[in-house]
Design brief:
Elements (H helix, E strand, L loop, with lengths): L2 E6 L1 H18 L5 E7 L3 H8 L6 E16 L2 E7 L9 E9 L3 H11 L5 E10 L11 E6 L4 E2 L15 E6 L2
Parallel strand pairs: 2-3, 2-5, 5-6, 6-7
Antiparallel strand pairs: 1-9, 3-4, 8-9
The protein binds inosinic acid and magnesium ion.
Inosinic acid (IMP) binds next to strand 5 and helix 3.
Amino acid sequence: MIEKEEVVARNDIAARVKELGQAITRDYAGRRLVLIGILNGSFIFLADLVREIELPIEIDFIRVSSYGSSTCSSGTIQCTKDTELELAGKDILLVEDIVDTGRTIACLKDLLSSRKAESVKICALIDKKERREVEVVVDYAGFVVAEGFLVGYGLDHAEHHRQYPAIYKIVSGV
Ligand code: IMP
Ligand code: MG
């Protein structure tokens, strides 16, 4: 059993996701936008976010594990599921659950930038500053959180707790 305390309530998540969707709708009007969800953590956030975007969009997914085979300036990742859409000439928005050290998202930005996309930007539900090692610009951040291990709304601890409708900090039990 874990002990957890709520850090972002369900209603506050919904309100912020709506704002992010409105900002994206404004910024990408007239563009060819592809949202790429980073599996598994982004699945709930992405599902809610796309329903707040009033533009024709495409959706794809990518899955990576750390310490794999492709190196980039910020570390090493392995793509265990790659994107499938044609990305050349399109505007990519990477949708991530949480940016922590920044290594994963920095590697993915490098990887996708090499595919002749028009632009690659980052949207993260949580921008967690405590352990940042690589400087990354989170273009659209849902919430900035100072510290702690978070679960819920897609975020997991050892693949559990993703299903909670709010975001919690684990206070003991792991
Ligand atoms: P980074 O490369 O250190 O930025 O790693 C980010 C990844 O670590 C995210 O995609 C999450 O899967 C995971 N992660 C980092 N912090 C947390 C957290 O507080 N809760 C759940 N997962 C986390
Ligand atoms: Mg995870």
